[in-house]
UniProtKB/TrEMBL annotation:
It comes from the Bacteria. It holds the Pfam family adh_short. Gene3D superfamilies: NAD(P)-binding Rossmann-like Domain (3.40.50.720). Belongs to the short-chain dehydrogenases/reductases (SDR) family. One of its GO terms (molecular function) is oxidoreductase activity. Keywords: NADP, Oxidoreductase. The keyword Nucleus does not apply. This is NADP-dependent 3-hydroxy acid dehydrogenase YdfG.
């Protein structure tokens, strides 16, 4: 896809972070934009921003972990704009900690948003795109954490590896159908977002239980501190949207932002082929 003016983009997680940057980039390209986010106040801020840019915009409060709400997002998109051309499956959350320590409520929340939310978006919008038979593109937000793993974020890594695998599988399926739908999986390294404030976006059914010991544990508190550090020292977020849209124009599947991780990705593949046990020493070298 290299013609954007007048096309319709749908963006989940549009109230903050990458979602806002994608929304601004769409508006700059004279696209019509549908914004979705679980927090209505954040959603309204992005909506106001795009209206100031003279963008034709629709805001739909959406919890992507509930399929019915994602299906309603698709319905409202078609009712309002009559088509969908570009989908950013972007909403995501994180909780640090090893799998034997984090509460199962956190595991369920991460999987519901980061995996089910992507699947629900694909399920709701791909049939519409197939029926349109027009050139469409889908960008699923994963992470470098979907290509590499570290010791302390098991749930997040699992969800992002699942996003990469899901994206690859659907990409193969679109090719097999000879569909006019291209996919990309966005795998950024550390960027200055507010991902470390994910707890602000918990729906009621996944709220933190204050009596749960984990949230007072050294593991949790150190994980939060580490997350804040790596995000605050990440690359500026305003450098992201242009590279993503360039990848869309060039129909690139894997969208990476940090070349410094490429040798680690290569080593991971080499270790797989050679049957080498992954070593934690890589993180101290």
């Amino acid at each position: 896809m290299n013609e954007f003016s007048g096309k319709v983009a749908v963006i989940t997680g549009a109230g903050n972070g990458f979602g806002v940057e994608f929304a601004k980039a769409c508006a700059n390209r004279q696209m019509k934009v549908v914004l979705a986010d679980i927090r209505e106040d954040d959603l309204q801020k992005t909506e106001r921003l795009l209206k100031e840019m003279n963008c034709d915009v629709l805001a739909v409060p959406t919890d992507v972990s509930i399929y019915e709400q994602v299906a309603q997002l698709a319905t409202k998109t078609i009712e309002h704009f009559g088509q969908v051309d570009l989908l950013f499956n972007n909403a995501g959350v994180v909780v640090p900690g090893p799998v034997w320590e984090i509460p199962m409520n956190d595991w369920d929340w991460i999987m519901s948003v980061n995996v089910n939310g992507i699947a629900y978006g694909l399920r709701a919008f791909i049939p519409i795109m197939l029926e349109q038979e027009t050139a469409c593109h889908i960008v699923n937000t994963a992470s470098i954490a979907g290509l590499l793993t570290t010791p302390s974020m098991a749930a997040y890594h699992t969800s992002k590896h699942a996003t990469v695998a899901l994206s690859e599988s659907v990409n193969y399926a679109m090719q097999a159908k000879q569909a006019n739908i291209k996919l990309s999986v966005f795998c950024p390294g550390f960027v200055q977002t507010n991902l470390h404030h994910s707890d602000d976006y918990r729906p009621e059914r996944f709220k933190i239980n204050p009596s749960e010991p984990y949230y007072q544990s050294k593991t949790f508190l150190e994980g939060l501190k580490r997350a804040q550090h790596v995000i605050n020292t990440g690359i500026p977020i305003d450098s992201i949207s242009q590279s993503v849209f360039t990848a869309i124009e060039e129909e690139r599947f894997y969208i990476l932002t940090h070349p410094k991780y490429n040798p680690m990705i290569g080593k991971r593949v080499k270790d797989m082929l050679e049957g080498v046990i992954p070593s934690v020493r890589i993180f101290s070298s």
